[in-house]
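Below is how a single chain appears once it has passed through the pipeline. First comes the sequence as given, then the structure the pipeline wrote out for it. We keep one example in the README because the format questions we get most often are answered faster by looking than by reading.
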Amino acid sequence: MATIERRNPVYDAVPPVPAQTPAPMATTQTTTAGPVRYVWAAARIAVGWVFLWAFLDKLFGWG
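Resulting structure:
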């Protein structure tokens, strides 16, 4: 079965869009962002160590 595609001039006519520059976003860093990142990093390492220890314990039978 074959289909015939025809171009529709109504849908092909796209109005020009004026160039818009996005407004610059204000970035502010709070004073607690630094310590909170270190706490989350330490928690992430601790949780990773727990799962690594469980794997190694099962692998080598360290008890």
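The mean pLDDT is 83.

See the next section for the split statistics.
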